[in-house]
Amino acid sequence: MCVPGCLEVVERQLSRRKMISSLGLVAGATLAAPETTAHADQPRRVRPRAGITSFRRVLDLTHTYSEDFTHWRGGGSVVELKTMASTDGGDDWNVFEWRLDEHAGTHIDAPFHRNPAGLTVDQIPVEDLVLPLAVIDIQGRARDDNDAQVMIKDVVDWESRYGKLPNDCCVAMNSGWDRHVYSDKFINFDEDQVRHFPGFHVDTAEFLLEQRNVTAIAVDTASLDQGSTSDFPVHVAWLGANRWGLENVANLSSVPAWGATIVVGAPKIKGASGGPTRVMALA
Length: 283
Prior knowledge:
By secondary structure, the protein is of the alpha/beta class. It has helices at 6-23, 139-144, 152-162, 202-210, 233-240, and strands at 58-60, 79-85, 95-100, 107-109, 130-137, 149-150, 170-174, 199-200, 216-219, 244-247, 258-265, 274-276, 278-282.
């Protein structure tokens, strides 16, 4: 839903993209900007898929979703399982009806979450849910600064060690924040009810869109944006470009900085803006 002021924010983001593109921060031709107004029932793009490399481990990057999981609003999450049938009650089956929040626990943000012309979660091409995974570690800064962000320099430093980000990868922020998930520190409200936790800087999101061809970003916090934001510029830029993101990802410290493949079991619910998701890494 585009809240009041949303169109003005989009205009500012488009201007920012032009600025970052003109900086020429990295040598080489600038990639064409992704379409931001593609019709929602069309795939974002069609591309060949590289084969999955060999792996030894399957790592679970998913928090267990329950009413104890700290919600972005603060407090617990909405999870209700209504018993429809029960073997304890003499039935042959155990069956529950679920009531839960699309955007709580480990979950996917589909473009439609912030972009009314974007893909709903069921429309994300399945080949876009299995991707090379690049993990950028900012744990050191996050320990000293609750408002730490993934900066362009972090991407450039990562590439100096592992090579240029490949096309169609997922870039994940490892801030170590998942260790706080069941405490007040996870959302970290101050006395003015402002949140303080790490996220991507909007310039970095624009860089990944304009200077690289990244399919998804992921965070181990409750938002792609740093907690103190009031206008969610990363959501506006990233989802507005028909890209998707993952929030509340777990266990990124167990994943190598490069070489793993992320597998995202997004729910295929018609018209949904996201949903609780099982996320795995093959490493």
